[in-house]
Amino acid sequence: MSLLWLFPAGFIALTALLLPLLIHLARRSEQRIIDFAALRWLSARPRPRRRIRFDEWPLLVLRLLLLALLAMLLARPALTGVADTQPRVAVLPGVDLAAARRAVADVDAQWLWLAPGFPRIDKTAAPPAAQPVSSLLRALDASLPADTALTVVVPSVLDGLDAQRPQLSRAVHWQVVEQPTATAKPVTIAPPAMQVRHDEAGKQGLRYLNAVASAWNGPRPQAANDSSAFSDDDKLHVWLSAKPLPADTAAWLQRGGRLLVDARTQVPIDAQRTPLWRDANGSLVIEQISTAQGHWLRWAAPLQPAGLPALLDADFPSGLRAVLQAAPTPRRALAARMQPETGAATYPQAATELSHWLLLAIALLFLLERWLASAPRRRSRQ
Fold first, then answer.
1. Residue (of 276, 198, 196) closest to 237 by Cα position
2. CB neighbours (10 Å) of residue 246?
3. 136: helix, coil or strand?
4. 252 contact partners, CB below 8 Å, separation of at least 6
């Protein structure tokens, strides 16, 4: 355990200690009375002397101490190495508390909800059952000292997981409580709707996009020549033309628009090109163009089988949809298979600030200072 100062510049406030010293300074001159006879008989040795004295020492010391504590408060003292090693039991909302207490026999542990803020079970009601379990486990692991034992009580089926098993810095007692779970509703995502603008050469690739939309069971692409402006910002804009992109494309991209351009579209010199999709032979199909104005996708070759053989592959529609619309990450799994692994780095613990204790001491000293300053004996002296 050691003491540190989070804001050492706060000690500049110690210069305020001069103020009570000046207030309590007794300016009294000690003079020697000499009977005047004649100016020539006056001695040059005895001169008036001054003594530095302070009135009301108890009140002065109290005020100095009060100002010193205020300076310490500004410097934000804190202690490191103060570890709360009381065991923790985190219960996922939705788990029957009675069943959880029967499963966990640790009576000295502190029971928490596995929810944002980790509220105590004995002081708060149950939060909503839908929680990001993996993120909360990592946050709870980071907030606890390394020597604190952690027990997590979860239902038999977990929802709200990440794409991988959680990895923590400590071994967790993973307690699974069997209870009925609600059937998860299947998540269906509508296929991308396309709006196409083309020239005469790009019109030849339109039939392949129509076939893709049919394989997706999605709406037929809205096609028009390249002189027509895009009209729907929510759809995927497909530009199959050798002309430059419309002037409002940059602003539309910055608003989150999605754009897929022809291979004939010029790429800025300072753009970053990232391959996104290659066919079975390793030939590039689609790349991502990244510039200061935004990101968009670009065909690697014109939409013709001669330059883009992947158009004739049976999995071309699914591959294109995977690039345009990533599949949702599985978030539901059996709890018995999702016990957290160890191996994560131990997180440094935050220092414990002493501000609340200093505030209490300052308040008590201020009340004592006011009582001494207004004492009857002091008023009688004045």
1. 196
2. 14
3. helix
4. 230, 233, 237, 259
State the residue for tokens 């209490």: 360
Domain map (residue ranges) of the chain: 2-81+354-381, 88-180+333-342, 194-319
pLDDT for residue 268: 86
The CATH architecture to which 194-319 belongs is 3-Layer(aba) Sandwich (3.40)
| DSSP bridge partners of 110 | 88
Each residue of 135-182: pLDDT tens digit?
999 999 988 888 889 999 999 888 878 778 889 999 999 999 987 766
**CB of 62 closer than 8 Å to CB of 365:** yes
DSSP for 18-75, please give it: HHHHHHHEE--EE------S-GGG--SS---EE--EES-HHHHHHHHHHHHHHHHHHH
Tell me what pLDDT residue 361 has.
93
Question: In terms of C-beta density within 10 A (0-12 exposed, 13-18 middle, 19 or more buried), how is residue 347 classed?
Answer: middle
Closest CA to 93 of 114, 112, 74, 66: 114
At residue 184, the pLDDT reads 57
Residues of the chain with pLDDT under 50: none
Burial classification of residue 22, based on how many CB atoms lie within 10 Å of its CB (0-12 exposed, 13-18 middle, 19 or more buried):
exposed
Q: Looking at residue 376, what is its pLDDT?
A: 66
Question: Contact 28/51 with Cβ under 8 angstroms?
Answer: yes
Cα angle 52, 56, 62; round to 5: 110
* 131-to-116, 159, 215, 289 alpha-carbon distances in Å: 8, 8, 36, 36
Contact 78/352 with Cβ under 8 angstroms? Answer: yes
Q: What is the C-alpha separation between 66 and 61, in angstroms, rounded?
A: 9
